[in-house]
Amino acid sequence: MLTDSHCHLASHRFDEAEVPALIHRAQEAGVGRLVTLATSLGDLHANLKIAENPVVHACIGIHPCDVHHAPDDAVGQLAAFTGDPRVCAIGETGLDYYHPAPEGWTEPDFRGRQRAFLRRHFELAAAAGLNVVIHTRDRSAHASFEDALEIYREFHSRARAVFHCFIGPWENAKRVLELGGLVSFGGVATFKSAREVRDTALQCPAGSFMVETDAPYLAPEPHRGKRNEPAYVRDTAWFLAALRGEPLDALSGHTGETAAAFFRFRSA
């Protein structure tokens, strides 16, 4: 079963009224499960509402680009929802060193708040028996990845993490896997320029990675430049299956099983 392990169905780029059609198109494309992720307290309830559909599951978290808007106790507020059967993981959290610090913040202070929030997310996940979805992004090199990996290292015996939309080299992916974590590949893997990502996807063993859209962002070929949607995870899966020399059904099967083990989906 194909699983879109990371999308944002409550994004402002999707009209609330069209979400049922998005889910239907995904199902027609063979996508049997979708994971929609909150990025702030502001879109938490919208994601939970969407996850009332039994094929949709929700993650709850504060995106690193939103930590300056979030109250100091934002992660504590999420704790009230960890027992909700619609909630399957904590996230999207992580570190974003790509975007500049917002007005009124220094770069060190903003990054420090992101790291503090990431630790709080891990503490919440460990207490709730859930896993964590991590975002990292840099202008150059891999500083956010390195910092996030070190924080994960502190918690890896108590909660697993997936580094979503992974675009790094195999050497970095291997370090995540050695801690018991996962990586996830999205539309970037289909881009002609993404040789490093494809090399990583080739070397990842079955059971160590998932597939995603990150919809509405980063649509895969042949939809690149358009608004992404969960149905397009099939294009990424098809591309990766061909790259790895696997039947699409085989890749859909093991990535779906990996997602089910990580998110511990409720029965539909």
What features would you describe in this structure?
With 268 residues, this protein is of the alpha/beta class. It has one domain: TIM Barrel (Alpha-Beta Barrel). It has nine helices and eight strands. An eight-stranded parallel beta sheet has the order 1-2-3-4-5-6-7-8. The protein is globular and about 45 Å long. The relative contact order is 0.16.
Shape: globular
Number of strands: 8
What is the number of independent domains? 1
Q: Kindly state the mean pLDDT as a whole number?
A: 97
The name of the CATH architecture is Alpha-Beta Barrel
For the CA atoms, what is the radius of gyration? 17 Å
**Low-confidence runs (pLDDT<50, min 5 residues)?**
none
Assembly state: single chain
Helix content: 25-40%
Could you tell me the CATH topology label: TIM Barrel
Helix vs. strand class: alpha/beta
What is the CATH first-level class name? Answer: Alpha Beta
> Strands across the major sheet, in which order?
1-2-3-4-5-6-7-8
- The CATH superfamily turns out to be Metal-dependent hydrolases
Percent of residues in beta strands:
15-25%
Count, helices: 9
First-to-last CA distance? 13 Å
- Largest sheet, if any? 8 strands, parallel
- What string gives the helices and strands in order? EHEHEHEHEHEHEHEHH
